[in-house]
Amino acid sequence: MRPPSLLLAAALAAWVLAVFGTASTDGRFNTYVNPHGKLNALEAASRAGMSSLTFVFDRTGSMFDDLDQVRRGTEGIFNTVMKQRERFIYNYVLVMFHDPDVDDAVVTTEPHIFHQKLRHVNLSGGQDCPEMTLTGIKKALEASLPGSFVFVFTDARSKDFHLIDSVLNLIQEKQTSVVFVMTGDCGDRNHTGYKVFDKIASASFGHVFHLQKSQVTQILAYVRESVSQRRVYLVFEDRLNGQSSTSEVPVDSHLHVLAVSLSLGKNEHDTGREKEFLEVSIVDPEGKEYTIDNFKNDNTSINLNSVKLFRIEKPMPGIWKVKTSSDNRNSLRIYGHGEVDFRYGFTTVKHDNQDILLAQSRPFANQNTYLWVNVTDVDAPGQIERISIVDYQGKEIFGSPAMVTSHNPNLYVVGPFLPPKGMHFFVRIEGVDEKDYKFVRIASTAVSSHVLSGPKASMLPTTPATLHQSVNLTCNIEASGPYEVTWKHNDRPLTSMPLYFAKSDTATWPISYVKREDAGQYLCVVTSKDGNHTAATVLDMFEPPPDIVSLRNASAVLNGPAIMHCQTQTAEPSFVWYRNGMPVPSGPATYTYSNGSLVIFNTRRIDAGAYVCQVTTRGGTANATIHLGIFEMPTAKIAPKDIFVVENSYFQLNCTATGVPLPRVRWFHQGAPIDFARNNAFALDRYNNLRVYSGTNVKGVFECRADNVAGTASDYSSVNLAERPIINIPKDEYVLGQGDNVVLECQVLRGQPTPRIHWERNGALFASEGDVSSKYIYQKYGNLHIRGASEIDAGDYTCVAENSAGKDSKTTRVNIV
């Protein structure tokens, strides 16, 4: 009979969940396409990087204490997971095993169903020690999503240790961590059935733990504090013997939390607790050293005989040093929370446009290999400087300066190199961030090379394609000899003859114009004398959102119609116009045509402004804003209208223009536009007034023309040269008797404009145009009529003619006898 458990297993599972956190983006995760060419919910979760929380439980009777703790402890784990700001756990998997039976995996997305299954577990037996542990782990890995967390609860070694290679292959394929909660070992840790647990834990960045009940409170508190964030991994070292060591750890500016975990292992001959000795401390970049005692008030730290763990929030960027001492073999794990992470993959050909998702998760043995790394959240000028592979002790097996690819600034490559044989190794990257702080990251699981027994084809699980555009389907093939490729669409051959390839290469199937009938599953079928392999992809077709084309603002003349166009080349669109957030109705004032055009029949000033055209198709909705301008016809008014100007002088014509928008004003002379650059007789001020120097050729008609988008208006002014007046008085003297009447004649011989005439008597103003009295009448054309002459009318009479060009005068004498 195996001894009852001394551990609270659920608490340990919670702690391990905190240590390993959530799904890492390290490595290449395989995703799957179902035969119908559609992604189901599980496949979609895998593509989104979500994970499974998996328990593998030994339901032998001796595990009663463990099961009781798991039943009570899982509630705390689930509550912590459910409170995550970003959900990483998609489903829960439970596998129960008991020699010789291993139950089918229970998979559910509901925590309460998982609890219910645990409550109804029946324990039985317990006389024999070895159990079917690896069979249970294998079933759990097959049922779990990539990047998951598997916790194994048992108090016995494995009976089916011959499955170790299958389990390790699944761990590499699924990039999954496995943690063992051991409450017994059948008394022989040197047995192969126990040693396989160490192999599995090491390959998966996991642990093999032996803990006591006193760990519960601090472990659960640590889980609640730290389970909500993704992990990035920095250091993995398995020390085979007790020793004192110092490890340098670069901390970059993107690392928010630094965590150190040191666990003690035991050799097969070490059974006494008095030999357990485990110490760890850390030194920051400024030389200050912290021991585990510095973190005793932190409820997330653990200080046990066999496990030491502490976390440092917001660690100072720079080089930290971790010092460890132990009298036995031990495992150091250093990880953190931060953005910088990476995926990796292997190829035997250096493709020009390599996609990290098309690289292999494991290298092929005896083949020249290229290692590709796609890094995330390293901003320029930060970069990866070195890519290497390291063993379990952290020693570099191969390393080379990283070379960035030309088609993707985040994708780096090293090689070619021959991958090591017969061992597992981790991929490690080193570089500097944008602030010139060094960083290091290590993959979350180890990988090993495997023999390329036949061709291996890989395609993206889904290939995005846009209707009516082109797309290329690519199939990467790794092969050691010649092979043939046949393409199929929904099991229908696309090629009449297979395509021949001599070595590893990329096969491409182009679709120049994607149609709806092109949707579905495409197969890349590879055949060779060494074997066959088929890869599949689903053409994930989508109709693009409508593209609104030929978009332009509209304008209309006040009180006239306005038309706004909204055109799209997408099939079967529907149109809705909005004004100030409200739909524009179709009615007597406005109407929307089936082609998307909106007409306003009689525009008003308030109709000016922004209008939104919304187009909806099966591909989505698009909006476009069009501005409607309401214009008013221009007016032009010129002043003065008709003028005479004096030669060799300046004059000005003013033009007042109105309209919406404000019209452009142009000047014309005799029907031709005035060229201000070539004719310096004309000048224009900022108010569009025309200043003219009156030479001999300036007479004629001047036009002020105002135009805007609504129309054109003009006004005119006639300009003539002024001529100085010349007059004549036919008689030099008039002799009158008392009471006579006489007309003093003043003849205007010439003068433009028509001169103004007035009379002076003896040098003083006497009469001008319009004067009328009983004695004197100023007659038309400047003649002066004197009635009833008397002595006072005697004297010199002068006729004066005057205009803008000058004046002239003539004098006659009136005598009274």
Would you kindly provide a written description of the structure presented here, covering whatever features stand out?
Helices cover 11% and strands 45% of the residues. It has 817 residues and is mainly beta. It has 7 domains: 1-228, von Willebrand factor, type A domain (Rossmann fold), CATH 3.40.50; 231-338, Jelly Rolls, CATH 2.60.120.380; 339-442, Sandwich (Immunoglobulin-like); 456-539, Sandwich (Immunoglobulin-like), CATH 2.60.40; 548-627, Immunoglobulins (Immunoglobulin-like), CATH 2.60.40.10; 640-721, Immunoglobulin-like, CATH 2.60.40.10; 724-816, Sandwich (Immunoglobulin-like), CATH 2.60.40.10. Strands 35, 38, 39, 42, 43, 45, 48 and 49 form an 8-stranded mixed beta sheet that branches. Strands 1, 2, 3, 4, 5, 6 and 7 form a 7-stranded mixed beta sheet that branches. Strands 26, 28, 29, 30, 32 and 33 form a 6-stranded mixed beta sheet that branches. Strand 48 and strand 49 (690-693) form a beta hairpin. The chain starts with 8 loop residues before the first helix and ends with a strand. The model is unreliable at 1-38 (pLDDT under 50).
